[in-house]
Amino acid sequence: MRDIRLEYVRLVHDTIDCLESGFRTKGRVSYPRIAGDPHEDKASRIREISSAVVRCSRCGLSQGRLHAVPGEGNVEADVIFIGEGPGSSEDRQGKPFVGRAGQLLTKMLAAIDLRREEVFITNVVKCRPPQNRTPLPEEIAHCFPYLERQIEIIDPLVICCLGGPAANTVLGSSVAVSRLRGTLHQYRPDSGRPGGLCIPVIVTYHPAAVLRFPEKYRRPVWNDLKLLRDYYRDIKTVR
Question: What domains can be seen in the chain, in order of their start residue?
Fold first, then answer.
C-alpha cells in the first residue's frame, strides 16, 4: 500500500512541477522506498522513545521542566501534527496540546472529520522553553532525533506542521509560514539513512496564533485544513 502512496505523491508533485515550470527547473523527484520491519511492534518502539525523552537531560530545558512531553496518539496514525514545544499546561500534565491551543486544535481536527485518537500529536522540543519562548537551535538539535524516530516508526501518510519553528525544523528551511503554507512539501531525511522517508508535509499557523489574532489567521488556517482534508481523502482513496 505504501508503494501506491508514493506513486500518488509522485504524480501530485510532477503535476505541480509541470504546471509551474514544465519540468525545466526541478525535474523529477526521486522517491526512496520506505524501509523497516512491518512486523515490529510500533507501540513498544514509541514507548521506548517516550521513556528516553522522560529521562533526557541533553539540554538546559530539562532542568526547568515539571514533565517532559514526548507526544501521544495513535501509533498507526495516518497524520502526525507537530508543534513547537510544550506550554505551561502541557508541562504540568506531560501531554501535548492540552491547554487553550490544544482545545482549539481538537476543534480544528473535528472540522475536518478527525479525532485526536486517530492522529499522533507531538512537538519539536519535548520540554517547555522558559516563558514559552521559541526553542533555541541547540535545543532543537538535541531533541530532533526523537522526532525523527517517531516519524520513522509511525510512517504517516502526511505531516501537518503547526507554526514556523515546527515547519522549519521538519523541512530544514528558514522560510516564513506565510510562504510555506498552501502547498505540499516533503519530509525526507538524508537518503543515505536507513529507513529514509518521503512524506508530504502541509504547513499552517499554530493554534496559539489563531487565538491571539483570530481575524488574521482563522481563514488561512481553515484553508490549510481543507488542503489537508482533501489530500488525505484522496490518498486514502488510492490506498
Answer: 1-31 (no CATH), 41-238 (3.40.470.10)
